[in-house]
Amino acid sequence: MNPMRTAAAKRRALAGLAVSAVVIGALTACTGSDGGPTSADTDIDAALEAGGTLTYWSWTPQAEAQVAAFEKAYPKVDVELVNAGTGNDEYTKLQNAIAAGTGGPDVAQVEYYALPQFALTDSLVDLAPYGFGDLEADYTPSTWGAVTVGDAVYGLPQDSGPIAMFYNKRIFDQFGIAVPTTWDEYLAAAEKLHAADPTKYITSDTGDAGFTTTMIWQAAGHPFQADGDKVTIDLQDAGSKKWADTWNQLLEKDLLAPVPGWSDEWFKGLADGTVATLIIGAWMPGVLEGSVPDASGDWAVAPAPSYDGKPAGAENGGGGQVVLKQSSNPALAAGFLKWLNNSDESVKVFLDGGGFPSTTADISSPDFLGVESDYFGGQKINEVLAAAAEAPSSDWYYLPYQVYANSIFGDTVGQAYANKTDLNAGLQAWQDALVEYGDKQGFTVNK
Amino acid sequence: MTAPALVRRPVRKDRKSVALTIVMALFLIYTLVPLLWLLFSSTKTQAGLFSSFGLWFADDFSFFQNLVDTLTYRDGIFVRWLGNTLLYVVVGAGGATLLATLAGYGLAKFSFPGRRAVFAVVLGAIAVPGTALAVPTFLMFSQLHLTNTPWAIIIPSLISPFGLYLIWVYAVDAVPTELLEAARMDGAGEFRTFATISVRLLAPGIVTVLLFTVVATWNNYFLPLIMLSKPELYPLTVGLNQWNSQATGVAAEPIYNLVIMGSLLTIVPIVVAFLFLQRFWQSGLSAGSVKQ
After folding, report:
1. In the prediction, which pLDDT does A98 show?
2. Residues of chain B neighbouring A96 (CB-CB closer than 8 A)
3. Are B44 and B99 within one domain?
4. From CA A268, how far away is CA B45, in angstroms rounded?
5. Are residues A62 and B250, on separate chains, in Cβ contact within 8 Å?
6. In chain A, how many H helices and how many E strands?
7. Domains: count for chain B
8. pLDDT category, B284, cuts 50, 70, 90?
9. Structural contact between residues A28 and A98, judged by C-beta atoms closer than 8 angstroms
10. Residues of B with CB under 8 A from a CB of A
11. Inside any domain, residue B3
């Protein structure tokens, strides 16, 4: 009876079908000849001069202005911008187009968590022959790591989401709560706040795969490893357990607002203080300013709590752009991509639109760091967020079928959230489902 | 449906059942509360949605502002989606009803070799949910280079096994074979018989099938979701979902007030169509029940 449920189930079914089609496609594609581009093909400046047409799939609000600026700079290139859907909807369409062998764009926006799925199934152009390997120093290590596999470069990072703690300072002051720096302090703050006013919660979390993977990342967990077709999944490693044991205490004591992220109630909770903190990517200020204007002046930013009080980083959200193998003019597509995510002009448009940079030059520029945000009561938030981007973080890999994995999160870990039971059991159930699915898709999982 | 009443049953006295009334009332509330929520919410601004009770008005009344914003957001893409949906419904559902009527009538009133095989195929087709066929259809259509065109939605919508079956079953009883024979005796051709006699007798069945196919095409979500990637071709269902998902993640731009107004505008035509066609439908049901 729940339309959302059915829609989710359909999406899941489709994601499954699409992935299997892609894996089969990738296996058969191996037999084809792959001569690799010659130097004449990889001259992106010549391609930009010669011109042509490109299709670019993106849902970022800044894309329109960026494409307009690009076409002005390169009048011979015509870019058709298509919003083919947000996140999962776009990936489904990409997978289908890849399976069908036609219908895909030249350049597409793909979030970091979904990138391995396309990269490891041989659907993306390796941009190293186009000289993209030299761009490594321009990007933060975690975003560069997210678009590369070994020496292969499968895209360029657009934004990044180093985690920070956004907290409602008005509520914190009202109830005399100190800003927590460790997770133990965070738990104590959660209890104090909810005891003082039962309508207020430290944060909201009804089960979100992106959040959970980020938190395991911060706890130095390595639940996913992939080496070719061999995949290792261990959602009960030390880091995963550490996070689950911490979060269990919030869950079992009813200290999490029962409000799904990104729902209208959630935005409402951010405005009225029901949701007092968010552990979320550094791209959040733009969302708060744009969509929660009523809470202007209430919010502040602090480093995310850690287990030992020392800075510990992880990424939440963010993504980049890739060139599809289907593209009939990959050199031109690469040229557009390089301009899009590596030129000052384009990056400026992106940042002015509220994005958080992945380019080290922008993150460390005095202009960026010195911005005093009116919304955040004059706080220099970028200093905190830039420090978050530099906080030491462990290596992290997503599954080559992370899009599917995230789509079944609600059926497994989500059940533990719903029943307020041990998250470790939920993680184990997620792992079991992922091992089974991976084996069926032709991967060798945990063997 | 059409069996003549041989024995006239005594008219039952109107008895009032408290239990039935309660069940009915509960069902009514269950059905109407979401609609009421939609109506109230359509009068609110984005901020008002977040700060007011769902089943009453917010402080500021912005129904007309929402209406204007919905129709003009992104150069009036909503109007485009509405036009697309109408196109898919008129051609798709209209075509499906026409084909179902022709085929169902033919199968009911003419005997030819292979009829039972057709029957089995149609029954089998009813058992396969359209969702399961969406991906194979997509792969087939992309080889024909029909994805990302209106045909990708219209062609699959033209086939309604359930409608065919319904017309078939209905035609067996609603169109007396004796009548057809009489028409033939009088020298009417098969086509004329069909157009002047059978279609009229089949009208209630046709309207029923039309109703089903219109609703199915109007609400079609999954097929256009995977077939189309250009927003200019989207029907309302997929377009509204795109607006809705704008509220999620990096660079989120929630426009819930427009999503709600858009949803309201989306259901109005279907409610009107239902009320309008229902009159034919009801009168048809009773018309067929007594042999004159």
Report:
1. 93
2. 135, 138-139, 142, 226
3. no
4. 13
5. no
6. 20, 15
7. 2
8. low
9. no
10. 46-47, 49-51, 131, 134-135, 138-139, 142-143, 145, 147-148, 221-222, 225-226, 229-231, 241-242, 245-254, 256
11. no
Nearest by CB: A290 against B230, B248, B253: B253
The mean predicted confidence, pLDDT, of chain A is 90
Predicted pLDDT of residue B24 = 94
Q: How far A21 CA sits from the closest chain B CA (Å)?
A: 10
Judging by DSSP bridges, how do beta strands A148-149 and A152-153 pair with one another? antiparallel
pLDDT, one tens digit per residue, over A415-441 is 999 999 999 999 999 999 999 999 999
Rounded to a whole number, what is the distance in Å from the CA of A84 to chain B's nearest CA? 5
Minimal Cβ distance to B245: which of A89, A103, A272: A89
Per DSSP, the three-state class of A302 is strand
Q: pLDDT per residue over B99-108, tens digit each?
A: 999 999 999 9
User: Residues 6 or more apart from B138 whose CB is under 8 A from it?
Assistant: A96, A100, B147, B226, B227
CATH number of the domain bearing residue B255: 1.10.3720.10
What phi and psi, each to the nearest 5 degrees, are found at residue B179?
Answer: -65, -45
- ipTM at complex level: 0.76
Q: Does A303 touch chain B (CB under 8 A)?
A: no
Q: Is some CB atom of chain B closer than 8 A to the CB atom of A353?
A: yes
Determine which helix (DSSP H) or strand (DSSP E) holds A166, and give its type and residue range. strand A163-168
Topology of domain A3-160+316-363, per CATH? D-Maltodextrin-Binding Protein; domain 2 (3.40.190)
For domain A163-314+394-445, the CATH architecture is: 3-Layer(aba) Sandwich (3.40)
Interface contact flag, B241 A89, Cβ < 8 Å: yes
Domain that holds residue B130: 73-287
Alpha carbon distance A362, B64 (integer Å): 43
**A105 to chain B, closest Cα gap in Å:** 10
Pair B101, B242 in one domain: yes
Q: State the pLDDT at residue A21.
A: 43
Q: For B181-240, how does the pLDDT look when each residue is reduced to its tens digit (9 = 90+)? A: 999 899 888 999 999 889 999 998 999 899 889 999 999 998 998 899 899 999 999 999
| Annotated domain spans of chain A | 3-160+316-363, 163-314+394-445
Q: Are residues B79 and B206 in the same domain?
A: yes
Whether residue B181 is contained in a domain is answered as: yes
Residue (of A46, A131, A132) closest to A332 by Cα position: A46
- In terms of domains, do B151 and B51 share one? no
Enumerate the residues of chain B whose CB falls inside 8 A of the CB of residue A159. Answer: 250
Mean pLDDT of A275-297: 93
Note whether A3-160+316-363 and A163-314+394-445 share their fold: yes
Q: With 80 as the cut, is the pLDDT of residue B288 above it?
A: no
Per-residue model confidence as pLDDT tens digits over B152-185: 999 999 999 999 999 999 998 888 988 999 998 9
pLDDT at B77: 94
CB contacts, 8 Å: B145 with chain A: 102
Task: Count how many residues are written for chain B.
Answer: 292
Decide: A137 and A116 in contact? Cβ < 8 Å. Answer: no
Overall pTM > 0.95: no
Q: Do B105 and B216 lie in a common domain?
A: yes
